[in-house]
Structure formats: structure tokens, C-alpha cells
Amino acid sequence: MKNFLKYRETWLLAGIAVLIGLISTRFPGFADPANLRQVFNDTSILMILALGQMVVILTRSIDLSMASNLCFTGMVVAMLNAAHPAIPIPLLIVIALLVGLVLGAINGFLVWRLNIPSIVVTLGTLTIYRGATFVVSGGAWVNADQMSPDFINFQRAAFLGLPVLSWIALLVIALFFLAMTRTQIGRSIHAIGVNPTASVYAGIDVGRTKFIVFCISGMIGGLAGYLWISRYVIASVEVANGYELNIIAACVIGGISIAGGIGSVGGAVLGALFLGIISNALPVINISPFWQMAISGSAIILAVVLNARGERRQGRIILRKAEAA
Amino acid sequence: MLDNPHPAHVVHDPPHKGEGKAPRLTLSGISKSFPGVRALYNVSLSLYPGQVTALIGENGAGKSTLVKIMTGIYQPDAGEISIDGQATSLPSAHAAFGHGITAIHQETVLFDDLSVAENIFLGHAPRTRFGTIDWRTMRKNAREVLETMRAGHIDADARLKDLGIANKHLVAVARAMSIDSRIVIMDEPTAALSMKEIEELFLLIEFLKSEGKAVLFISHKFDEIYRIADRYTVFRDGEMVGEGLLKDTGQNEIVRMMVGRNVDHIFPQREPKIGAPVLSVSGLSHPTEFDDIGFELRKGEILGFYGLVGAGRSEVMQAIAGITRTSRGTISLDGQTIAPKSAADAIEAGIVYVPEERGKQGVVIGLPIFQNVSLPSLARTSKSGVLRLAEEFSLARSYTERLDLRASSLSQDVGTLSGGNQQKVVIAKWLATTPKVIILDEPTKGIDIGSKAAVHGFMAELVAQGLSVIMVSSELPEILGMSDRVVVMREGRIAATYDNKGLDAETLVRTAAGIAA
What is the ipTM of this complex? Predict the structure, then answer.
């Protein structure tokens, strides 16, 4: 299993290398370290979101409301900043995390206590959170000139050669990696995705664990809300509309099984990078938006086909061993 | 009968000559093995037109394997199948269907969201001359079949999911009638039925007999077998041990055939040192599953729980292990009343439950061995939520070594282990929680002889160390070979508790089945 995961991630990494190579033939500067750093920075928000989605998908659930959460939280922090420019940015980030946490906890509560399938719950809150954005903003936009310079420049500040945004992404990746490999909750998330019944017998509270993963994806949505608004310097009801599908696509390309239980932090990050490269680089080399969509779509299907083959292979291993025994 | 959509299947009944008539289906010398398990060895079975044959045997006797061979799902390793005296083979479910063999299972395999008529005619619906489904004829034919079965009360347009189980059985039989099945297999059809529904089912079986169908009836319940069947065939450990006419054979004789066996497995010798009661259960009740369950488990004791499938043994154990709730009753451990609300509570208190379905409820395939072992002990092997991998490894190593687990590495996926070794991982995982009481539900079901012996030896070792074990088992030799005392459950209640001194298998089977001695 571990070898196979490695195999899959190596595969994805190779795919990304090939993609970069192909783009370099048309746009020679693309593989320059400076440009690759730029691509990483451009993909940071998607990577963070994909990690938040990953823990949800691992538990056989899905969070469709992440992009709406991002939009709502982004609007809240942008309005706070416009009204009280004195609030320091780190505090604003904490507020974004908390607002996101509340929205995530609502999803988690409905899934846990009312036992509603997560796809239904988050399909509802997808609309509700975006509607709530309209309510708090009255439909108005928060523009760049209403935001404080700190608000806009915080993530752009360079630190040890990388923008703060990239550092935040690296920090989130590291935290998720540690959480998934070194903590009890990470292990429980994995176990209930693989075998929920056995997990119940092992004394893991499946409902509570699901509640926690929705809290995590909510916090991530909130964090991404601030990052997104300060990056694109406009807050409106339309922000990140439909972006939940990109997040899920990044997870699927990264080898995270929609059926739960299978997936890794590395996979989610690489899946996001793959999508990020396609959407950032292809316009530069004059490939039409239609082809971009076709390439992303093909990547998703290819990833699912490879995953399905991987799972079948597991089954055969069992049989072969059983016959040998 | 109705218009036959498959004229090739017209019944050619052999001449009726009372008992001497030719069998419709004959299986002879059938053997079938799975890796590590011999499911059937040289068994024979004959089904006669217009007669009901009961297939009797304990769990694991090979009944369901035989049904799968008869319905083309499994291929026998050896043996012959003949229908109306013609040797044939059943390479697929489709081929079995073509020969007019239909199986009606405990849980009917029909389509909940389709109508009754669609279910009856799925795959052979009458067509119009344009090739589309002739709905009018289909409904009319469906009503006709149901009428002939005296099941006219079922609306041919109703969704199947709106019907009760008994009526679903009727639809399944109607489907068998519509394809002109000549051989109908009923695999524990009464398990989920009420008394009244069982009566209706019996009327239906009488009707099938009168139509000249050959019926195979599988049931654990002796009263049903004697009520409806003409013949019997007894299986034991994958072999055919007796057959004949029920009117010539008493219940006790059949019980003896079921349980008498060659000793092929030596149980560990042990000198039980039984101490004070550890676990006391009294008046434990559940609204629908069990009632007034009371027993004591003493230190160093193996308490066997015997009963027919569906007697409520697993349900009681799950309640004690905090997985399901009870409506009344008390559980006390070492004199302290406990009320576990979750599996985690019960594990914390010192009661672990090793569930029956290893694949579904036990191992987490996809996780490595050491993570499987540490799963219920994570609270102990981690510190403020952070895992300590070294502790996990040493925990896993010490318990898997004690169980003699064969694996190349503890980081190996459990899915790559054999069934017996998976079971060892499951047991290791529960022992690692250092329980006081360990409940093993069918601990050796579906594992090979060698692994069985290892599990039994380990149980003996556990109780010798002062642990107390409850062993739910449907295998008589295991119950008799391992238990100090045996609780027999029947229909959600405790029927009797025996000291395992001079206890014989027949007594247990009779108590479990409710047959007077």
C-alpha cells in the first residue's frame, strides 16, 4: 500500500515534470526556478483548500461549501478591514480561521447529529453561505481602495526569498503532514475512511471525527478567504463561484479516492500543482481556454482510471497470497 | 400456466411412479475447495419433481456453497450434475436460469424500485411487434401468475419496496413460475418471517409441489422441515452424511447425523482455575432483539454461547460491548455497575468485543499491521493526541509475536495476509487493550484448521492468565471442546445454561432448536 502510494505520487510528479517540459518547449523561461516559485505561489491557495477537502473526502464525506465559506469569510474580513484598518493582520487571520470554523462546525454538526449525508448538507450550505455573504455585504463590493495597504501587502512580503503566501502554504502542508502521520485524529480519519464499521468496534467515534474534519475544512476555507481576497483585492458575492469543483478536482487528480480511505497530503498538493500549472501556464503559451478545460478534465478521468486500477490490483494481491498459502 | 416465453423449457415430466420416480436434478460426487478450506467433499443430492427436499446441516456444513454450485455461481472442482438424467454443466448463473433453476434467498434478490410486474418479467418481458415492452400484456400475465399462486392480493403495479418480506417472497416465486422454473431452491426463506407469513409460504410451497416443481428447502428449524418437506439430506463438514424420507426418520436421528463426527481437531487440554464472578448481566433487554438476558462470567472461565443463527447472541454481546443500546437490565464488572454508551467506554472499562465479520468489522484493510493492532489503544500509545510510533510498534510486536503471526513486516498491509493471520491481527489488537473480559464472536469461522488450533490454544492461554472469555460459536465441537459452561439461546432468550461436564451435542442442538428430548 505504502509503496503503491509512493508509486502514484511519483507518477504524478513525473506527469508534472513532463507538463513543465512540454510548456518549456513553447515558453523557454517556464522551467526557471524563479518562474516555478511563482507557479507555486499562484497555486498556494488551491493547495491549502485541497488539503482541507482531502481530510473530508478521506472520511467518505465531501464539503461542497468550501468556496462559499471562502467567499463569506473573505467578505467579513474585508469589511472588518475597511471599517477598522487598525486591526493587525495576524488578528484578522485568526478571525478568518474562527469564522471559517463556525461555518465548518455547522456542516459538521448537521452531518454528525442529524445524520444527513454530507453531500446534501454542504449542497445546502453552499447556497446559504453565499446568500449570507449577500446579506452581510448588502450586495456591495469591497474594493482595493477600501482595503488597508497591510491587508493587501501582508501575503506579498518576501521572507527568505519566498512570499508570505508561499510560506503559509508550506506551513499548512507541514501541519497536515504531521497531523495525518503523527496524530491520533489523523489515524482515526484514515481508519474510518477505510473501514467505518471496524472503527466503531475499535472505539473510534465516527460521528465526532466527521465533525472534526468539517471543522478543519471550515477553518481552511476561512483562511483561504482572507488569502484570496487580499490576493485578488476585491470582495464580492461572486468570489470563487464554482471553485469547489476545482478543489475536488485537485484532490481527485492527487489520487484521493472519492470512496474514502485512500489519499495522502503529497497527493493533494501535487494534484493542486498540476491544476495550477495547467491554468496558469497554458494561457501564456496561447492554448485556448477550451483546451485547458479539456486537459484538466482528461487529467481527472485519467487519475480516476489509475486509482481504480490501483484498487483492483490490491484485490489481486490478496487472492494470490491466499492461493499461495 | 401462462404463455411460456421460452418454449424450449417446456416441462417434460417423467412418468410418476410414486417414490420411485426419477430425480429432476442429481448432483453426484461434488467437491469444492477454497484456499485453505474444503467446503464440499464428494457430496450427492437428488431433487424429485413434486417433492420438497430439506437440506439440513450446521453452519459451515457446505449448504450455501452447494446452492451457489446449483445456481451456476461457483464451479465444482469435481463431480457431475445431471438434469432429467442428462449430464450437464452450469457454467454461469445464466446457464442455471436457462435450465429452470431458481433460488429464493433469505433476503430476496429483487429490485426494490421496480413494480411487481417488472420484477416478475425482468429479462423476459413480453414485447410488442415494434420490439418495445408490451406493458399491457406484462401486467395481465403478472396478474395471472399471481392469481394461480393464490396471491391475487398483490397489486402487479405496486413498487416492490412497498411490500413486506413475505409478499416479496411471493413475487420471487411468481418470477420462478413465469420463467417456468422446474427447480426451486429456498435458502432459509422463513428466517425473517412472522408465523402467519410462514403459513402463507407453506401454502405456496404446497402449490409448487402440486405444479410438479422440485423444491430444495434449507432451514434450521425442525418443525418447519417436518411440516413441509418429504425428503432430507444431511450435510456435515462438507460431506453428505445421510438422506432419506422424513416420514421414516425421527428428529433425534437427524440431530445425531448433524453432530456426530470424526475427531479431526484436538482441543487444548486445560485445567480451569475458575475464580469469582467478573461480569454479571441481569435482566438485559432490547426492544426487538432479546429479552431478560442474565448470566455470570467468572474469572478464568470460557463461557460458550450456542444457538441457531439469529438467536440473538451477537446482539447481546454488542450491547455488552457498548455498540448497541439496551432498554433494561444491568451489566456489572467486578461488582461495579457499568453502562457503556460506546465501544470506547466498554474498552475503557475492560470489555472488548471481537466481531464476527472479520473483513467488515475487524481488520482495516489498507492500513499496515501495526496500525491495525494499535487502533483501539491509540489513547494509550499517544500523548496529547500525538502518536508515538515506537510505542505503537513495540505494542504491535509483542502481541503479534505471542500469537505467532506470520508476516514479513509489521508495516505490511493486513490485506495481504491470509484469513487466519488476519484473525490473529484482530485478536492481537483487542488483547493489546489489556481487557478483563474478551468476547469472541465466531472466532474461527472461515479459517483453516491450523489457524483454528492457534486461536484455540491462545484462548486457553488467556484464561490461564486470569482473563475471562465469552465465546459465541455455532460450531458444536468448538463449543464442547473449549467452554467451561455453555449458555444456549433461542429466539432472543436464554433457553438453558449447562455445565460442560458430560454435556453432549444432541442436548445442545435440541435446546437450541426447541425440540423436546
Answer: 0.72
